[in-house]
Design brief:
The protein is mostly helical. The mean pLDDT is 76. It has 8 helices and no strands.
């Protein structure tokens, strides 16, 4: 009778181990599928490949879903920026952006703006504007998802995107004038 109980206990223990391995494998597959998005966000926020890798690695050790992972990456980036580059977190009010008409994004696209110029324009944005654009345009998150990741109201996300787009238009229009 004891041997039957022992075999039953061993079977249950093995079943638990297999289940844990399966959950671990699913976790790894889920996390790895979002690693590129996490790195992309961290790279745009820190503007440095090595720093982005460090931040993503730290965040990766903490989580198990894409939006939550990106939220952790975002928070880790801001913590890192506060410790290493405080001056980049300041957002200045640009009087020129809020006066008069400017070219629309469609016109700018039709003018064949290259990726090089767009990259520089994105990097010129303050971090909170840059993250909104990256999460929306490059990662495809909805306004609601961005609000959850950045822990701000949806209206703030919309405002940041509008202001970021306005700055991008101005940056690219100024660049076009210089050419």
């Amino acid at each position: 009778m004891d041997s039957v109980l022992s075999v039953t206990a061993q079977c249950k223990q093995r079943e638990t181990q297999v289940q844990a391995q399966s959950e671990s494998s699913r976790f790894e597959q889920t996390m790895l599928s979002h690693l590129d998005a996490a790195y992309n966000l961290a790279r745009w926020l820190t503007r440095n490949d090595t720093d982005a890798e460090d931040v993503v690695q730290e965040a990766y050790l903490r989580d198990n879903s894409r939006a939550w992972l990106l939220k952790i990456v975002r928070n880790s980036c801001y913590t890192w920026l506060q410790q290493n580059r405080v001056h980049e977190l300041a957002t200045e009010f640009d009087e020129q952006l809020h006066s008069g008409e400017s070219e629309t994004p469609e016109i700018l696209v039709l003018d064949n703006i290259t990726r090089h110029w767009l990259k520089h324009a994105l990097e010129a944005l303050p971090p909170e504007f840059r993250e909104a654009v990256i999460l929306r345009e490059l990662e495809g998150f909805s306004y609601k998802e961005i609000a959850s990741i950045t822990e701000v109201p949806v209206g703030t996300v919309m405002s940041r995107l509008a202001r970021a787009r306005k700055r991008l238009q101005q940056y690219l229009a100024d660049d076009k004038k210089e050419r």
